[in-house]
Design brief:
Radius of gyration: 10 Å
Number of helices: 3
Largest sheet: none
Order of helices and strands: HHH
Helix content: 55-70%
Length: 49
């Protein structure tokens, strides 16, 4: 779960799929799937704390 959250944070910061994959958090395909699922999630762009 931590890796998934870190990937989402880094995508929001503007890191590329390749940068995230190089860091070892997740493979490029996993990063792309995480990013696409975030785009489909309602309210994903809003920050809730």
């Amino acid at each position: 779960m931590f890796q998934y959250r870190q990937v989402l944070v880094r995508l929001r910061q503007g890191d590329t799929d390749r940068d995230i994959a190089r860091s070892g958090l997740m493979g490029r395909r996993g990063v792309q799937e995480a990013g696409s699922s975030r785009a489909r999630t309602p309210g994903a762009s809003s920050v809730s704390r």
